[in-house]
């Protein structure tokens, strides 16, 4: 909701201030300037990134308006960890083998569809539980393996934000390209145009610069920031899962291992000790 309000505030402030100052809205409507700036930015994006990145960024951008990283989601991750660790402690690691081989059919994982829907996170949890069930890896070795994988996950999660940030950095320059082309058109008609027409062409050229700067600092820059924040929150959940599983591998009981995971979460949506205790009792 805050992001939608932010977009509205940008539009209202810029366009409202312009019109209240005596400007005409239609003076800013130049589709071909948008074509030049938007097309050049898109082409640069496609050149700089893998082919699949455009749809990946597009889908993640749409999700920015409603994040899944909420207080409830964090609590569900912790409850899942507690349930699976508690079962393995009571019945042995072999008892959770069926849960790990087919999470979709698992009575435990199926209780948490939001987590099960995230294939990477589900595989992440199952893979390390399988490693722990082998019993051949010391806790510090397990932690080292976690760190190596988390470095790769971080790189993958950060890529969309970096890609959009590069576009944001280039938008003012694309606006200048549109402005220069507008000036070239103006120069070509100097001989037969009157002052009003020349002024109109120069104004159109300046709109190109305006649109490029506004798109950069009003929309694409903030979008890159939102994607970066989203990546940090998602990585934090992976780090919390790591903390809980390493604690369990070190011999901590499930309730204490999950407390390690809880403490690793960012404070903004971190469940309280009492909330987690009640959730574990409910499990």
What does this structure look like?
The protein is mainly α and 283 residues long. The chain has one domain (29-282). 78% of the residues lie in helices and 0% in strands. The protein has eleven helices and no strands. The protein has helices spanning 2-20, 31-48, 53-63, 71-91, 97-101, 113-116, 119-134, 139-188, 195-249, 254-264, 273-282. It starts with a helix and ends with a helix.
> Fraction of residues in helices?
over 70%
Q: Which shape, going by the Cα principal axes?
A: elongated
Beta-strand content bin: under 5%
Query: Alpha-carbon distance between the termini?
Result: 32 Å
Task: Give the structural class.
Answer: mainly alpha
Enumerate how many helices there are, as a single number.
11
The main pleated sheet reads as: none
Number of strands: 0
The Rg value, from CA coordinates, equals 26 Å
H-E order: HHHHHHHHHHH
Mean pLDDT: 90
Low-confidence stretches: none
Task: Work out the count of structural domains.
Answer: 1
In brief:
It is built from 11 helices and no strands. It has 283 residues and is mainly alpha-helical. It has one domain.
Which characteristics define this entry?
283 residues; mainly alpha; 11 helices; elongated
Set down the secondary structure blueprint:
Layout: H1 2-20, H2 31-48, H3 53-63, H4 71-91, H5 97-101, H6 113-116, H7 119-134, H8 139-188, H9 195-249, H10 254-264, H11 273-282
Helix pairs in contact: 2-8, 3-8, 4-9, 4-10, 4-11, 7-9, 8-9, 9-10
